[in-house]
Amino acid sequence: MAPCRALLTAALLALALPAHAGIDTRFPELHKAFPRATRFGDIGGDPPAAAVYQGTKVIGYAFETVMVAPIPAYSGEPINILVAIDTQGKIVQAEVLEQHEPILLVGIPVRKLYDFVARYVGHSVTDSIVVGSGVGKGTHIDAISSATVTSMVTNETIMNSALKVAASRRVISPAKADELPAGKLDMHAFAAADWKTLTGNGAIRRLHLTRGAVTAAFRSDPQSGLVDDPTAPAPGHENDTFTDLYYADATPPSVGENLLGASQYAQVMKTLKPGDELIAVMANGLYSFKGLGYVRGGIFDRLHVLQGEKLYLFQDSDYLHLDDVHLDGMPSFGERALFVIRGGRGFDPGRPWTLQLLVRRQVGPLKSVYHTFTADYRIPASYLSRSAPPQASAAPSALPMWEQIWMSQKLNVGVLAAGLLVLTFILLFQEWLVKRPRLLERLRVGFLLYTVVFIGWHGLAQLSAVNILTFVHAVRTGFHWSLFLMDPMIFMLWVFVAVMLLLVGRGVYCGWLCPFGAIQVLVNKLATRLGVRQLHVPTHVHERLWALKYVILLVLFGMSLQSLGLAERYIEVEPFKTAINFHFVRSWGYEAYAIGLVAISAFNNKFYCRYVCPLGAGLSVAGRFRLFEWLKRRRECGRPCQVCAVECEVQAINSIGQINYNECHYCLDCQVTYWNDRKCPPLVARRKRRDASSQRKTISITPVPVSAPEAGSQGAIKAID
User: Fold this and answer.
1) Helix ranges (DSSP H) in 227-310
2) Burial class (CB in 10 A: 0-12, 13-18, 19+), 84
3) Cα separation of 147 and 696, whole Å?
4) For residues 175 and 308, what is the distance between their CA atoms, to the nearest angstrom?
5) Mean pLDDT of the chain
6) DSSP-assigned beta bridge partners for residue 54
7) Long-range contacts of 640-645 (CB under 8 A, 24+ apart)
8) What is the pTM assigned to this prediction?
9) What confidence tier does 217 reach under pLDDT thresholds 50, 70, 90?
């Protein structure tokens, strides 16, 4: 009995103890990476990682990169990689767990990505890994052929996450003694300078490659066979310029203001957030530094910045045009651009960094080889301010990132809240306003200008169908409020729009808060005043055309189920990014599309919104479950009165007088007519009856004296009409 009681007691104690499932229960392959391990911990800490033990001694760490450095790849979603490092900082495991890269689904085997990731095993977290063959500093790893963006993001994901975990667990030592302390740019000092001065003091650096130098780098690689391949040998043209590229940190006023001019520099700096860094790049030659990412609207696959062991990639939202330059003595360049390194990514302008240029040679239908050329940069010490050491209070804020963002945008949040409050009063007191059409018209035009200038061009808070797809995707894969709280103005607009969808449908956003829609309305109002003839779409054609936007939404939704990044690339059917985010300054194809849609609105109001906009389609679907119908109608509407149906500029009122709330943009024009006794036929008839009754014929009676009345007779009365 004693042994039985002991066994029972041990079993009960085992059940009472909390179960600690180690990371190896999910990833048993870690046993191969750590054959001497006796125990694996669970993921925890900041950044999240699991310790690996031999007895009581920690011999390494394992983690998922999506928990440490979730960097969006070509698909728009991070590549999740299982990485393990030992206590010497060596990578002992690297294995892809999840990826959604569309480029790997069209002819390139996914095994290519797995093999590429496996090459990181054996490297140290402090190694400077350079994607692509080449010369210069760093360890070079060949990129995945025809998938350079995926290769660059994978490299950044593995190395940045491994570096974070190693630093947080004291696997690697602090910064080397010979490194400069964190630098702070002197943003108050300005010194006038010309091209010779800025290139002479190192503020503007140069990367010059000849065709001969590039050909030599590719000497051991297969030939492309293309006649016009600039990387191929070209007898007699070895000294021709392949690229003559100049680059600079344009954030300090002494560089940026001299380069851009005072007004343009000030305008650009207003678009940046605290901590953002502005990199200027200018080049001549055969090879474009923008690459395919610029055309696709995705990630720039040719130009990158490396600082220490951390790689910085540029997305299309990090790109700004560099059209006008004011630097005296500056030569002419065929290609110019500004790139933004976003704050919060750990970039230190006071430390040296390296510019990387990836050069590609196509050697087959689906095969390419790459070489990376590098050039170093260190900002002149005169542009830095190091006198004030960091204060103790400058420690990282304990507030979550989204709260810090909201605090930094208090002014924008306040102005947007005030605008939404004004719109709320307009909606609540619309019956009083529509009886005063002049006041309503001025108020509406003023609010549309506010929408375009503040919400759109200043706040960049143009909602998009991609927000709907992202929300649906988040619900499917794991919803986190913090993801949506990172952009205060977008979040506030979506909350307001959600409430309006529940109350009255889609029309409030489309008619009042959409910046691109407001541009179309304002252009149409101006065109109407100038006497531009409006084109009316026949009803039977209109009713078929407005179904197009629902088809577009369904196609995008189907794409998002496969890959959200794929849907985001085709979301360019919306001109919002071009018209609002880039202020109509983009490559000519995008500009022509956006400007063309605005031009059409001069002849047919809100043509895009009515027939093409997938965002409007998504809001219509959500708005079908509205609780109220605040727009008033009469029993005579449509039977026989057709005034509102004819006047409705978006043709949201059918022939029997019913308002199609799925298509209504809530402009309130029909409500102005509803209360106008000079336009609404039932009210006109009622007014005329009232006027007629107040002017009825009357009879006046006047006594007329009789000269010789007979005895006993009364005086005669004469009736006069």
Assistant:
1) 253-260, 262-271, 291-296
2) buried
3) 88
4) 10
5) 80
6) 57
7) 641/680, 641/681, 641/682, 643/673, 643/679, 643/680, 643/681, 644/670, 644/673, 644/674
8) 0.52
9) confident
